[in-house]
Design brief:
With 155 residues, the protein is mainly beta. It has a single domain, classed as Immunoglobulin-like (Sandwich). Strands 2-8-7-4-5 form a 5-stranded mixed beta sheet, with no helix packed on it. Strands 1-3-6 form a 3-stranded antiparallel beta sheet, with no helix packed on it. A hairpin with a 4-residue loop joins strand 7 and strand 8. The protein starts with a helix and ends with a strand.
Length: 155
């Protein structure tokens, strides 16, 4: 029985020390940046139903980017995601009737350390107007993730 325990411990130690792969080298989060560009949307941005919302941010990582996700959901209950210190004027709390929910993943071409993300998102013309959250989730190729959430308003 002692031999099995010794062999198991030896295998665990060897497995822990043998990692010279990319995941062990990448120990930092990717970056969602608005430097040098006119980033849209931004905190307190006003969107209009039936129009197309432009999206523009720059993503960077020290080794390699992976993908990003955009999520838009209502904030009619005034909840928070805690990534912004900007306070936007809010409407009264209300119940959703036809709130907009958008959730889309986007792949970033492999091998890139910088990516200028630009897309257009159509806003349905029949969604509830009011306060919404616009969230960006950026993930690098080994799984580190950065989140940026901002308050926007749909009229």
């Amino acid at each position: 029985m002692k031999h099995y325990l010794a062999i198991t411990m030896l295998l665990c130690v060897l497995g822990a020390c043998g990692g010279d792969d990319e995941a062990s080298k990448d120990m930092s989060y990717p970056v969602i940046s608005d430097e040098g560009i006119e980033a849209v949307p931004s905190d307190c941005y006003i969107l209009k139903r039936g129009e197309v919302m432009p999206f523009h941010y720059v993503f960077t990582d020290d080794t390699e980017l992976g993908s990003f996700n955009i999520e838009i959901h209502n904030n009619f209950d005034h909840h928070t995601h805690g990534t912004s210190s900007v306070e936007c004027p809010m409407e009264e709390e209300k119940a959703a009737v036809n709130a907009w929910v958008f959730n889309q993943d986007y792949e970033i071409p492999s091998g890139l350390r910088t990516y200028d993300a630009q897309i257009e998102i159509p806003i349905p013309d029949d969604v509830d107007p009011g306060d919404y959250h616009f969230m960006i989730r950026l993930t690098d190729h080994v799984g580190w993730q950065q989140l940026r959430a901002m308050a926007v308003k749909i009229q």
